[in-house]
Specification:
This protein has 92 residues and is α/β, with parallel strands linked by helices. α1 links the parallel β1 and β2. The protein is built from 4 helices and 3 strands; from the N terminus they run βαβαβαα. The radius of gyration is 18 Å and the shape is elongated. It starts with 5 loop residues before the first strand and ends with a helix. A 3-stranded parallel beta sheet has the order 1-2-3, with helices on one face. 39% of the residues lie in helices and 13% in strands. It folds into 2 domains: 47 residues, no CATH class; 34 residues, no CATH class.
Length: 92
C-alpha cells in the first residue's frame, strides 16, 4: 500500500495546514516540513509530522564568509532577538 505524504515548505504553508487540521481533526496523513525557521518549536503543533530545518549553521556561514572575503576571521559578534536565543546558543 502506498502512503501519501504531505510536504509543507515554509512557515505560511505550515500555518495553513494547522488550520486545516483544526477543521479536520481526523486528518492524520504523514507530513514532512522543510525549509522552515523555528522547526523545533513548531513541529509538535502539527499532527504526525517530521521535518528538516534548513538554517545554515553559524560556523559554516563564517567559514564561507572568510573564504569569500579572503580573510582570517578572528572573532564574530552576533546581534539577535531574544526569540532566537536558543538557536544562537546551540550554534555557538
Amino acid at each position: 500500500m502506498a502512503i501519501k505524504y504531505i510536504g509543507l515548505i515554509d512557515n505560511a504553508t505550515v500555518r495553513e495546514y494547522r488550520e486545516y487540521q483544526k477543521r479536520n481533526p481526523s486528518e492524520h496523513r504523514p507530513v514532512i516540513i522543510s525549509m522552515m525557521s523555528f522547526l523545533k518549536e513548531i513541529i509538535g503543533l502539527v499532527n504526525n509530522a517530521n521535518g528538516i530545518a534548513y538554517e545554515v549553521p553559524g560556523v559554516l556561514f563564517m567559514v564561507r564568509a572568510g573564504n569569500i572575503l579572503n580573510a582570517d576571521i578572528v572573532s564574530v559578534g552576533v546581534v539577535y532577538r531574544d526569540a532566537l536565543n536558543d538557536y544562537v546558543h546551540a550554534e555557538s
